[in-house]
Amino acid sequence: MNLFKNYNLIMKSYITIREGEKRMEESDGVGNKREKKRKRNEILMKKKSIDEIIEAAVSDKDPLIHFPSLHYYINHGLSVSLKSEHGGVLSCQLKQYIKVLLKANMEVPFGCEWPAEEKVKHREMVAPEARYIFVYETSDCDSNRITNTSEGMVVGFVHYRFVIEEEVPVLYVYELQLEPHVQGKGLGKFLMQLLELIAQKNKMGAVVLTVQKANRSAMNFYTGKLRYTVSAISPSRVDQLLGLQSSYEILCKAFDPEAKTILEAKTPHHLLPPREPRRGTGQSGFHDKFYGLQQCKE
Ligand SMILES: CC(C)(COP(=O)(O)OP(=O)(O)OC[C@H]1O[C@@H](n2cnc3c(N)ncnc32)[C@H](O)[C@@H]1OP(=O)(O)O)[C@@H](O)C(=O)NCCC(=O)NCCS
């Protein structure tokens, strides 16, 4: 009888312990589920706010409007005015201009990759999300007399987009192309600074761009003067072997702490190329090539 009683007592306490454990497991499960749901909501909210930032930036018809004092650049005997355009509505002449300048500036740095790259660039050129700033050389150096209607000859352009990189909204510079005779006069730096202002005005976390390793001059321009760093998402930072195989680096300048952590992290200074003497200017013949074209070829 005693034996039976003891057995019952043991069984009762075993059941009580199991029930307690079960209740704890269940409450743990509910806690985990709540935590997972909270995290998922956080991610969704963040994604939504990033999408809204990009949407707002993309819907801004003319980002230049917010910087009226920067519509002109007059320095080193150069006088230019700027104008915004969109990839989807580029005129036939501007499309042809882009093609010719791209080939003139980029065929050498791209080397044997150029034919394939050229096709990609021609496709990217007319994408609706492509944003442009075209640079027009004005004959008049007096800033007071330059008006919006005094467009001269186009001498360069910037192609940029508002995109998401590693969950950070960024202004991605697809192209910055200047004709040889306007290079080395501070215009490239001015345009990059303008892009940085446009990026910050539109709540982008960073400006990002890709440079061919063979384009030493451009690499020095970005990393030397403009203080851009090799991004943590660049092939050479992602994987050493990948870095050796790839012909380009991704550079960035981040504006907020989160973007800095994700896109910049620590800068491997040993990867930055040594400074080179500045590239010479004054190569001629570009305008002859472009304006000599009789017809607009698509
Ligand atoms: C690269 C490019 C955009 C630079 O623009 P740019 O107008 O010629 O350069 P800037 O005159 O604004 O130079 C700004 C500063 O960088 C310096 N710099 C320019 N090129 C340099 C170089 N190769 N090495 C070191 N410093 C350089 C200048 O001395 C200047 O310094 P400062 O402010 O003390 O005077 C222009 O040369 C270009 O269109 N090149 C051909 C196309 C190309 O390679 N585009 C980049 C593709 S990613």
Automatic annotation (TrEMBL):
The keyword Nucleus applies. The lineage of its organism: Eukaryota, Viridiplantae, Streptophyta, Embryophyta, Tracheophyta. Keywords: Acyltransferase, Cytoplasm, Nucleus, Transferase. Residues 98-269 form the N-acetyltransferase domain. The keyword Cytoplasm applies. GO terms for cellular component: cytoplasm; nucleus. It is found in: Cytoplasm; Nucleus. This is N-alpha-acetyltransferase 40. CDD domains: NAT_SF.
